[in-house]
Amino acid sequence: MTAIIDYDAGNLRSVQKALEALGNQAVITRDRDEILGADRVILPGVGAFGDAMEKLCQYGLADTIRQAAASGKPFLGICLGLQLLFESSEESPGVEGLAILPGKILRIPDHPGLKIPHMGWNSLSITPGSRLFQGIENGAYVYFVHSYYCKADDESIVAASTEYSTHIHAAVERGNIFACQFHPEKSSSVGLQILKNFIEL
């Protein structure tokens, strides 16, 4: 069973539907025991970094997430869920992230001819050996919606990157922790394969 963490941050149902299409039971929950008792955990999300951290603290979920991440079970952050795993974001100065992974979230720089937020399909440069991207061709396209991007301190955890105005760490993995800036649940057959790889870890 997969626990999808509910902190009022959108895109929960689409993640649940994608998992159910793969034959995986998924529950949307903010119950601590249900999250810690699940086989794997997903932290999805769309919205602002500061608002999200406030909600996680309000619902007592920040420590639960850290416990789930430390437990060794597969853990996946999606979009804002990736950003929250890091230390801080330029979107919300002074707000501390979960700091499960070392690095910062930065604003995508303005660039002539490019719109921000970045909304649309971009190709991935996949790091060889990445477990999340097994069976996926280098250069595969996935769907992004974001104005801020991840810059991990440790390049060795970067599982995939993309270019949009700057070099963006599009996915990371370290031990049992996985995260994507893009939306696998909205990325067609490639996204479903990524989610399938996750639930088969």
Can you characterise this structure?
- The protein is α/β, with parallel strands linked by helices and 201 residues long.
- It has one domain: 3-Layer(aba) Sandwich (Rossmann fold).
- Helix content is 26%, strand content 30%.
- It is built from six helices and 13 strands.
- The protein is globular and about 50 Å long.
- The model has no long low-confidence stretch (mean pLDDT 97).
Gist?
With 201 residues, this protein is α/β, with parallel strands linked by helices.
Strand and helix map with partners:
Blueprint: E1 2-5, H1 12-21, E2 26-29, H2 32-37, E3 40-43, H3 49-58, H4 61-70, E4 75-78, H5 80-84, E5 88-89, E6 103-107, E7 118-123, E8 125-126, E9 141-146, E10 148-152, E11 158-163, E12 167-174, E13 177-180, H6 188-199
Parallel strand pairs: 1-2, 1-3, 3-4, 4-13, 5-6
Antiparallel strand pairs: 6-10, 7-9, 8-11, 11-12, 12-13
